Each structure stands twice: as C-alpha cells, then as structure tokens.
From TrEMBL:
This is Pseudouridine synthase. InterPro entries: PsdUridine_synth_cat_dom_sf (IPR020103), PsdUridine_synth_RluA-like_CS (IPR006224), PsdUridine_synth_RluC/D (IPR006225), PsdUridine_synth_RsuA/RluA (IPR006145), RluA_PseudoU_synthase (IPR050188), S4_RNA-bd (IPR002942), S4_RNA-bd_sf (IPR036986). Belongs to the pseudouridine synthase RluA family. Its EC number is 5.4.99.-. NCBIfam families: rluA_subfam.
Amino acid sequence: MSGDLRVVLVPDGLAGERVDAAMARMFGLSRTRAAELIADGQVALDGATVAKSDRVGAGAMLEVTIPSVVDPLEVVPEIVEGIGIIHDDDDIVVIDKPVGVAVHPSPGWKGPTVVGHLAGAGFRIATSGASERQGIVQRLDVGTSGVMVICKSETAYSRLKNAFRRREIDKIYHALVQGHPDPHTGTVDAPIARHPRSDWKFAVRADGRPSVTHYETLEAHRFASLLEIHLETGRTHQIRVHMSALKHPCVGDLTYGADPTLARRAGVERQWLHAVRLGFEHPGSGEYVSYSSPYPDDLAQALEVIRDAH
C-alpha cells in the first residue's frame, strides 16, 4: 500500500508507554487511528511487528507507514468497457452509457464513471462545475442505461445547463412497467422528496420538489406495458418513483416494489428503463439535434420474453 513512511527513535520521556499512546504523542494521531495502523500491520518496533499494548523503550526505532488517503471524489482516468461515443464535436460529446457506470465519482461509489472514462480516452471536457462533475449537465442513475450529453466547452456548459433548467431539452425514455397503466396515456404530476426511512430511496411526498412525468403506452402485453416517457423535470429516480406510485413499477426495479418473480422470468437484474433519445438546440450551431441509443442486450431480451408470454 502506498503511503508515507516515518521512522523515529523513541525519546526518553516516552519510555514505558504503550505503542499506541507513544504514536499518538509523536505523530499527532488519535489513539484510535494509531491502533488501526498497528492492526493493519503498518507499525514496526526495532523491525518487529507490535501489538498496541506493547511498551516502547527509550531509543527504540519506531517505523510507521501512514497510508495515503484516497479522495472518493477524485476523477481516476480509466477506459470503461461498453461506453459508446454517439457524437463528438468541439462543444459536446454524446455517449451511450451502459448499466453499472456512474456519471461522476461520489462518496461510497468505487465503480467506473463516465467522467473517468472520458479523461482516460483523452477527451477534454468543460471545467465548469465541481471538480468531479465538470462538464456534467445531466445525470443517469448507475442502474439506468442510455444516451446522455457531456459538455466540452464552457459556452456549451452554460447554455445546456440553462436549457435543462428551463426544461427545453427533450428527454425521452422507454420503460417496461408491470401491468397496464390506466389511462394508457397520461401525466404524473407529483412532488418527490427523499424517502422518510431509506435515504437511498425517494418517494412522492407533499413537501417534495415539483416533478412531472408524461407517458404513453407503446405496447401492452399480458404482464407488462412498454411506455414512452417524456421527462419535464429531472429529479433523481423520477420515473421509477412515479411509476411505482401508480402501482406500475418498472420491471426488475425491486427497490421500488417490482415483482421479483416477474424480474426473474424476464431475466433482468435491474430496472427496465432506458434513455432512448435526447434532443436539444446545439449550443454551438443553434440547430436542433437529436441523438438516440438502442436497447442494450439485457433489456431487449427481457422485452422479447414479455412479448412472447401468454
């Protein structure tokens, strides 16, 4: 493990002290941190490993390796298998994001990220925004695949950020939901806030932020319906929360109440939700542009299972 190796001789004044107490005094560490380093095998006394309750003698050589702390928000450049480049110019790069990839680093996420891939692939993206979210004007959940845009120029960043804020971007998703929404075409206008008991989930709540989802049924099958969804707002988990609130959760979305038996039957291990199209005024040319992404294999196969179910 990389880290900072420090070697000191124990002064007379600390002779007889426990190792963890001596380390706390000499290195300015807490006793708890000192004990962790000892337990991790990062501490040696005269070349031998120690227990935290061992005592130090005057003049003994204490070697401590303090591991370098990894910043959870640091963008690590790495090529991510499966990210497709749909379009690339001086202002924007449009990608096809696979499932299992986060848009940017965040505490607790150790997997691949879109910004890490773009850095690894040599893309220069806009420097606006927090360092781990530079150039990012929209997000897709880790478990949601599909088309998204990242800004390369500062002009593109400010123009698209404002366009998203003013709801001028056409964000179109396809979702395979359980059952048959009634009416077949409709709008869900229901505020969304964090779930009162599970902070990784969201829920429809009166004190939430305004959230509007428009849907229409493209195909109705025995167990599920394929919907086309236009997002007016862009809250975290919005489609998943709204469909669950209608009692028609996305197939495979166990977090929001989907039937595990149907998920197994369809062979999906995540929510059946895909960002199929993104349309907007190009921040450079001003022309309307539209980009699309085909269904990934797992969702395409699940849809065939549902279509064939009698």
